[in-house]
Design brief:
By secondary structure, the protein is mainly alpha-helical. It has one domain (about 20-100). Helix content is about 75%, strand content about 0%. The chain contains 4 helices and no strands. The longest helix has about 40 residues, at about 20-60. The N and C termini lie far apart (about 65 Å).
Length: about 110
């Protein structure tokens, strides 16, 4: 029995085929499905946060602070956190504006 399993694993390795059992393949398919659902939830959360933060960013941009660096600094000064509870950076502000369709580029 053990000899057959080792031989099968060697053969599968030589052929470049995964030596997975049916149960392992089903678990892998389930994991991919869970990752997809989790990814969709993360995207939805980011969309909600962008909708909440966009009026604040537009208010800051309406003042004399129009650059991405100045907007990020102002958001950090006001204590507004990113969707992952982090600090704002120019790239983070740009991504938020791109998500909302308000960024035309440099």
């Amino acid at each position: 029995m053990r000899y057959r399993r080792q031989t099968r694993e060697r053969l599968c390795f030589a052929l470049g085929v995964a030596a997975q059992s049916t149960r392992s393949r089903k678990c892998a398919v389930g994991a991919r499905a869970r990752q997809w659902v989790c990814g969709q939830a993360i995207k939805a959360r980011a969309e909600r946060h962008a909708a909440d933060a966009l009026p604040i960013v537009q208010d800051i941009k309406a003042s004399d602070r129009s650059g991405l660096r100045q907007v990020a600094h102002e958001l950090n000064v006001r204590g507004i956190l990113t969707v992952r509870d982090g600090l704002w950076h120019p790239t983070t502000v740009r991504n938020l504006l791109m998500r909302a369709g308000c960024y035309a580029g440099p």
